[in-house]
Amino acid sequence: MAEVVAGMVWPLPAALCPVANFCFYSSIYLSSLFLAALSVRRYLGVAFPLRLRGQGRLGRVAAASALLWLLACSHCSIVFVASYHGGG
Predict the structure, then answer these.
(1) Which residues contact residue 25 at a Cβ distance below 8 angstroms, ignoring those fewer than 6 apart?
(2) Which of 10, 18, 65, 66 is the right S-S partner for 83, CB 3.0 to 4.6 Å?
């Protein structure tokens, strides 16, 4: 928002540009991945209702959440690599 108000010129310190891009893109990836995981879980609940009836274990949910966070953050870390190694 600060960039738009300043006429599409980055007004903040240069170090914050990759951080802002990282936060923006990782939130997009995370919301998409969590929606996909929720859709898979709902499909499995409809397709195999008796098998998945008692499997709401917190450990599996936490592991899946951590895996999604790791996947999204590692994918979006290219913003830092490109910014500090000549990608501009």
Answers:
(1) 76, 79
(2) 18
86 DSSP assignment: T
pTM recorded for the entire structure: 0.75
Q: What is the residue-level pLDDT of the chain in tens, covering all 88 positions?
A: 778 888 888 888 888 888 888 888 899 999 999 999 999 989 988 998 888 776 668 888 899 999 999 999 888 888 777 777 765 4
Contacts of 71 (CB under 8 A, 6+ apart): 29, 33
Provide the token pair at 68. Answer: 């999604």
